[in-house]
Amino acid sequence: MHEGLQQARAPIFDVSSAIEVIHTGSYRRLPKSVEEIGTQNTLFQDERKPTLKKLSTLVRAKLLETLVPKEMSEVSVTDGIANVQVDGEFKVLLTLGYRGHFSLWRILHIELLVGENTGPIKLEETRRYVLGDDIERRMAVADNPLTILYTILHELCISFVMDTVIRQTNVLRQGRWKEAIKSELVSDSHRSAGQGGNNAPTQLGQDGELDSSGFRIPGLKINYWLDERNSGSAESDSSPFIKVEALQDMQIKCQHSSFVLDPLTDKEADLSLDLSCIDVEAIILKAIACNRHTRLLEIQRELKKNTRISLSPTDVVLKRKEVHMDVLQKVLI
């Protein structure tokens, strides 16, 4: 009997409907026919406002007891819906009630903010549904559900960013930058081949399923000011380059091969990507302008060291040693 009592459950009584019948003498949700049973899912107009207010209170309380990643720039609650956003990456609408459990998060909508000049990347409805379902299942069993949400969507956005960078670079190489730049994929040096499983970036496969088995996001190296003598040898090429890659912390990093100064600020150049409007050509043009400015400053510094050159603070005057006629004649002979 003791074992049987452990499995015993009391029925869930419809207290709200009983109170309505006692106070009003009627029941507004009573269907007119058997076929209409199950279709009375919407709230009446006078029930919506207090219900949404109570739901908003529950969502705010859930957010207070949940660890929110610092990368989430916006977390707000309106009408029982939590809006969490990472600038330039994604926006998600959440509420409570996953599969009838009011303590678990349910995803209402996922929107990617990563994109180009033509606009953000659009996920197909089927893939967005599969992605949301997979994230919901992982959040339901996780101690930090919002961290799981951020990790999966952040890695997905980073993979989309690198795909876009590689595609734009290939378009430039086939177009007007054909003879001016070259590019090559670089492996991720921050992770060894033995690391896998949960550390791998999350990808959407062709069937819409999430795939994180051993995938590594490649980086891209873009050379400009190509040296014609070494154009056929990648190892001996000394031309400047930009390297775009995802570091160990899964953040996109743009690095120049050498230290360059920004001509507008005279500080170290920032070649970071705008994830919401990725433009590889703009990054290349900025790198060229900064490199040219830095090299001119180096030339100016060397010229100022020469004591035989008369300079004003803003002018550079080059002088050459005089050559006597007899010396010139000997050279000609």
From TrEMBL:
It is found in: Nucleus. It comes from the Eukaryota. This is Mediator of RNA polymerase II transcription subunit 14. One of its GO terms (cellular component) is mediator complex. Component of the Mediator complex. The keyword Cell inner membrane does not apply. GO terms for biological process: regulation of transcription by RNA polymerase II. GO terms for molecular function: transcription coregulator activity. Its main location: nucleus. InterPro entries: Med14_N (IPR055122), Mediator_Med14 (IPR013947). Residues 1-97 form the Mediator complex subunit MED14 N-terminal domain. Component of the Mediator complex, a coactivator involved in the regulated transcription of nearly all RNA polymerase II-dependent genes. Mediator functions as a bridge to convey information from gene-specific regulatory proteins to the basal RNA polymerase II transcription machinery. Mediator is recruited to promoters by direct interactions with regulatory proteins and serves as a scaffold for the assembly of a functional preinitiation complex with RNA polymerase II and the general transcription factors. The keyword Transcription applies. Keywords: Activator, Nucleus, Transcription, Transcription regulation. Belongs to the Mediator complex subunit 14 family. Residues 188-208 are annotated as: Disordered.
